[in-house]
Amino acid sequence: QELRPKSLDIKQEELGDMVEKEMASTSEAIEDAVRRIEEMMSQARNESSGVKLEVNERILNSCTDLMKAIRLLVTTSTNLQKEIVESGRGAATTQEFYAKNSRWTEGLISASKAVGWGATQLVEAADRVVLHTGKYEELIVCSHEIAASTAQLVAASKVKAEKSSRNLAKLQECSRNVNEMAANVVASTKSGQEQIEEKDTMDFSGMSLIKLKKEEMETQVKVLELEKRLEGERVRLGELRKQHYALAGGCGDAPEDAEARPAPAPRRG
């Protein structure tokens, strides 16, 4: 009972209306997301250039492709639901069918809400990334959430669908496409993050001679510190291997590189 959706205070006869409203609301959220991404694209072209513009365009294009895939998924899911209701309600009305299958209906509503929410969160995360006020990791997490929500929607729809249903096959294909587009968002985000970070750390064009000299000295200090730390870790690794070799030799279980080393001479009592 605790795991059931919190929409149970809704009267069962209203569940059918809720399904239609939620699917319509999800479709509206997707359309709004596509419009917002287009606005962000236009804004990015006006306010950024070079590497940043290239990164922003690549990320926003992948987000647009994902939104289009979700839009097709929602449309196909709606068609499949109509097919399920028509084939399963018999002499009952649509409202009666949804009321009779209330748990399934609530799962459908929950899944639809999750898809719409995920799309909205993705757009907001993309907006913050383009404005340089957000984190690239947020986009990656949102993409994973959308993939999970899509799986939830497909699972909810699949429960009562006929195995031979064309709409079901199409929905599963749409789900795979959404997952692929979500993976593209993750890939474009990661590569964009690497490009921006590399550019930010290697762009010295605006520095004065004194600033450059200071940066050079600080970098030399870091290099020496890292070299010292590396040498210390190598010594530590050598000591660990010696101890490992000694213990393994005592237990009769030599490490992988033991064959290349001479066996220790036996000690006399």
From TrEMBL:
Molecular-function annotations in GO: actin filament binding; clathrin adaptor activity; clathrin light chain binding; phosphatidylinositol-3,4-bisphosphate binding; phosphatidylinositol-3,5-bisphosphate binding
Cross-referenced Gene3D superfamilies: I/LWEQ domain
PROSITE patterns recorded: I_LWEQ
Keywords assigned by UniProt, alphabetized: Coiled coil, Cytoplasm
An example Gene Ontology biological process: clathrin coat assembly
Major localization listed first in the record, in broad terms: cytoplasm
Entry's Gene Ontology cellular component terms: clathrin-coated vesicle; cortical actin cytoskeleton
Domain I/LWEQ: 7-248
Compartments (UniProt record): Cytoplasm
One of the Pfam families matching this protein, by short name: I_LWEQ
Region (Disordered): 248-269
Coiled coil: 207-243
UniProt-recorded name of the protein: HIP1R protein
Species lineage: Eukaryota, Metazoa, Chordata, Craniata, Vertebrata
